[in-house]
Design brief:
Elements lengths: L4 H18 L11 H15 L14 E8 L6 E9 L3 E6 L2 E5 L4 E12 L2 E14 L7 E9 L6 E7 L4 E9 L1
Antiparallel strand pairs: 1-2, 2-5, 3-4, 5-6, 6-9, 7-8
């Protein structure tokens, strides 16, 4: 649970100090900036009005893995497989109900080859991120959040996002 008691005490003091400065006979130069007070009030409200957070940060845990294999022949060749797993998380809180969704397990691949070229240690790396998502499948989009509750179905009106595309990279590193 977030503890904003110190923040709230400072905010209340700033509001009181500003009210006194703006009162008849007060010193206007001692008033706090109205924008700073409004921002402080928004920060306080945003962090204390919710019982549960939404989005990926609400996932109770995550996991990642790397599988890396180095071949004996040709010497210097390695291949790898990586993934980052996020379970279902709080996708929306509507009318006091928490809706869960959004689990993901994107898979990435890479290959590396080390060798000497003209006496210089050289590394070639080919990578492909987001090759596939084991949990989301081949869908072009996924549920990202929700903005309201559908009264007819009792289910959220989801907001969808296009899935991240595969990203290809090739790099060559030479050590001098």
């Amino acid at each position: 649970t977030r503890d904003f008691s110190d923040f709230k005490a400072l905010l209340d003091a700033a509001v009181a100090h500003t009210a006194a400065a703006n009162a008849p006979g007060g010193d206007l130069t001692q008033a706090e900036n109205a924008t700073f007070i409004a921002n402080g009030q928004n920060i306080y409200a945003s962090n204390t009005n919710l019982n549960a957070v939404t989005g990926r940060r609400s996932a109770p845990y995550t996991g990642s893995f790397v599988l890396d294999y180095q071949f004996t022949r040709p010497v210097g060749l390695r291949v790898g497989l990586t993934g980052v797993w996020t379970p279902n998380y709080n996708i929306a809180i509507l009318n006091g109900f928490v809706f869960h969704d959004g689990a993901t397990l994107p898979i990435s691949l890479y290959a590396q080859y080390d060798r000497k070229i003209f006496g210089q240690h050289t590394n070639f790396r080919l990578g492909v991120n987001n090759v596939a998502d084991v949990l989301r499948g081949s869908s072009d989009y996924y549920k990202n959040s929700a903005n309201s509750l559908n009264a007819a179905t009792g289910r959220p009106n989801y907001i969808y996002r296009y899935r991240d595309p595969a990203i290809y990279s090739l790099s060559v590193t030479v050590k001098f």
